[in-house]
């Protein structure tokens, strides 16, 4: 007859509840999140400054816009977690949802810029016009923000739990389609680069970059979709309350902090400084 496993000590069994209910742990965990987001924001700002100093004549390239949006998103998250107790006291409660959800939408727009860049490379390689891609990007972002604004208004008008579930499922669906976008355009660009001639300049470096970044972004948004669905249907896993700091820490670490850090590290290279060749006039003789 098998021996039943010994029960866990009460100190270990109640660890989760003690940590979640402790104001000191709450402040410490949310403070740690604020520091991590602040480091990423500072890194992105430094990259924007480096690119501007290195090649100011390029203007607002995709790389610079991507780094700037990362700075905005992570800076907003840093401020929210640093002032989490003040955010939790904002009235009416609908403004709490706006403050907490808006950086998530901006996170979507940030990485949609990267997917747009890859799609433009595919279209240019096939000799197709990219104007429709950029117009579609703006249109999709406009529709997404308009729908989210409509859901906020509905939640304000009827603050029922079902409306909160719909709002979270909207973010989950958005994350799912973003993951599909990276799978589609990242996969197609990876295959295109793979069949380039082996001696093509920069082929191997770009192949590794697209493969790594695409895999990270796909897994990030897919995990975000799954966890938001879990958050929508499980009241015990609510990320919008103060007394779930451990859950908040692992959620934001897995779906924003770690992926952003890896992507920024992979895309850390900045354009080479333009070399202006010397002009040698021909002699009249």
TrEMBL record:
Keyword flag Transmembrane: yes
Pfam families: THH1_TOM1-3_dom
Compartments reported by the entry: Vacuole membrane
UniProt GO cellular component terms: vacuolar membrane
Source domain of life: Eukaryota
Species annotation: Urochloa decumbens
Family: Belongs to the plant tobamovirus multiplication TOM1 protein family.
Domain THH1/TOM1/TOM3: 13-282
Protein name: THH1/TOM1/TOM3 domain-containing protein
InterPro entries: THH1/TOM1/TOM3 (IPR040226), THH1/TOM1/TOM3_dom (IPR009457)
Keywords of this entry: Membrane, Transmembrane, Transmembrane helix
Main location class: membrane
Membrane topology, record value: Multi-pass membrane protein
UniProt keyword annotation of Membrane present: yes
Transmembrane segments: 28-48, 68-87, 99-123, 135-158, 170-193, 213-233, 249-267
């Amino acid at each position: 007859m098998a021996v039943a496993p010994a029960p866990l000590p009460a100190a270990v069994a109640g660890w989760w509840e003690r940590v979640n209910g402790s104001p000191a742990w709450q402040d410490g965990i949310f403070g740690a999140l604020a520091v991590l987001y602040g480091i990423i924001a500072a890194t992105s700002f430094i990259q924007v400054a480096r690119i501007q100093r290195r090649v100011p004549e390029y203007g607002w390239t995709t790389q610079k816009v991507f780094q700037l949006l990362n700075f905005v998103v992570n800076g907003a998250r840093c401020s929210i977690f640093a002032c989490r107790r003040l955010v939790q006291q904002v009235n009416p409660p609908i403004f709490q949802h706006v403050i907490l959800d808006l950086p998530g939408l901006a996170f979507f727009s940030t990485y949609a810029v990267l997917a747009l860049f890859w799609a433009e490379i595919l279209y240019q390689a096939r000799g197709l016009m990219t104007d429709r891609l950029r117009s579609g990007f703006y249109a999709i972002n406009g529709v997404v923000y308009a729908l989210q604004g409509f859901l906020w208004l509905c939640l304000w008008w009827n603050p029922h739990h079902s409306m909160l579930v719909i709002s979270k499922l909207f973010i989950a669906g958005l994350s799912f389609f973003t993951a599909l976008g990276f799978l589609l355009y990242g996969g197609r660009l990876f295959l295109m680069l793979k069949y380039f001639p082996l001696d093509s300049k920069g082929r191997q470096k770009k192949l590794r970059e697209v493969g790594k970044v695409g895999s990270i972004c796909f897994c990030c948004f897919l995990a975000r979709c799954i966890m938001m669905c879990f958050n929508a249907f499980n009241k015990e896993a609510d990320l919008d309350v103060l007394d779930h700091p451990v859950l908040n820490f692992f959620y934001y670490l897995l779906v924003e902090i770690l992926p952003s850090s890896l992507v920024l590290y992979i895309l850390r290279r900045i354009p080479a400084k333009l070399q202006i060749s010397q002009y040698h006039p021909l002699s009249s003789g």
